[in-house]
Design brief:
The protein is built from three helices and seven strands; from the N terminus they run H-E-H-E-E-E-E-H-E-E. It is of the alpha/beta class. The chain has one domain: Roll (2,3-Dihydroxybiphenyl 1,2-Dioxygenase, domain 1). Strands 1-4-3-2 form a four-stranded mixed sheet, with helices on one face. Strands 5-7-6 form a three-stranded mixed sheet. The longest helix is centred in the last third of the chain and has 10 residues.
C-alpha cells in the first residue's frame, strides 16, 4: 500500500458498518441468525422479556470488532422499504454452512455460481422476510 493510500485509509470517517434491521420478534430473529454463527452480545431490556434490541456478533471471528455484526430492533409495524434490504454474508465454508442451515430446519435455495462469485452463493429468508445471501469467501472477496 502506498503512503498516500495508507494516510487516506487512516482518515476514513467510517470504521465499520453494522446493519440494524427492524424485526417483529428479536428472540425469534436471533434464533435464526444463530444458525449463521451469530450470538447475542448485548440486549435490552435486561430486566424482562421481550427484547427490544439486540446486538449480534460472531464469537468465532478472529476479532469480533471487525467480524460480522448485526443489530436487531423490535418494530410493531412492518418496515416499509422503498428498496429491498439484502444482507450479504461471506462464509469460510459455504457447503458446511448450507448443510448446517438445512439441519436447523430452514428452507434454503440451491447453490448457484454467478459470474461475480464463481465459488458459489445461496439465498434464504429470515423470519421477517429479509433476504440473506451467503457466498463463499475467497482471495478476491471480503
Amino acid at each position: 500500500m502506498s503512503e498516500a493510500a495508507a494516510q487516506s485509509q487512516s482518515k476514513a470517517p467510517i470504521k465499520r458498518l453494522v446493519p440494524m434491521i427492524q424485526v417483529a420478534d428479536v428472540e425469534r430473529s436471533a434464533k435464526f441468525y444463530r444458525l449463521l454463527g451469530f450470538e447475542i452480545g448485548n440486549y435490552v431490556p435486561r430486566e424482562a422479556p421481550p427484547m427490544h434490541w439486540a446486538w449480534l456478533y460472531q464469537p468465532e471471528a478472529p476479532n469480533w470488532k471487525t467480524g460480522a455484526n448485526l443489530m436487531l430492533v423490535r418494530s410493531e409495524e412492518k418496515p416499509q422499504h422503498e428498496l429491498p434490504v439484502v444482507l450479504y454474508l461471506y462464509a469460510a465454508d459455504l457447503v458446511a454452512l448450507r448443510q448446517q442451515i438445512i439441519e436447523g430446519g430452514l428452507r434454503v435455495g440451491a447453490t448457484t455460481y454467478p459470474w461475480y462469485l464463481p465459488k458459489g452463493e445461496f439465498e434464504l429468508h429470515d423470519p421477517d422476510g429479509y433476504t440473506v445471501m451467503a457466498g463463499q469467501s475467497y482471495e478476491e472477496s471480503p
